[in-house]
Amino acid sequence: MPTEVLLVEDSPGDVRLTQEAFREANIEIKMSVAEDGVEAMAFLRREGPHAGAPRPDLILLDLNLPRMDGREVLALIKADERLKSIPTVILTTSESEADIVKSYSLQANCYLSKPVELDAFEALVKSINDFWLTRAKLPQSQQMT
Length: 145
What we know:
CATH superfamily: Response regulator
Mean pLDDT: 92
CATH topology: Rossmann fold
Number of helices: 5
Helix content: 40-55%
Low-confidence stretches: none
CATH class: Alpha Beta
Oligomer: single chain
Structural class: alpha/beta
Distance between the termini: 21 Å
Number of strands: 5
């Protein structure tokens, strides 16, 4: 079965870059995209047009999102009994110490800053794949009720 990844990212360029980098790192990944925090929560809760959405094995979450920012999304994920076991990796341009501290206090599983150079970004995606999707033992997908 493919590994399900939910990318929560509002920049179309970053979405395309992330999808391409993961395609090169691991063809077994099926990536879904939510463009803002409201859509991410609808996807995770399988609401509206996302009623048939797969449960992600990993969430890649940007912090600076429209409608509902990533900090609020992270808080909602980790407060929800059905969602809190999904590893949530913050993948953002912010290198702010306050954002790092806040993300970990909200129980982020990891905080990564997006590099601006293409080669460095591709290397970061490969390291995410190597650790989170190859080496780490993730919880088995559970049916959400």
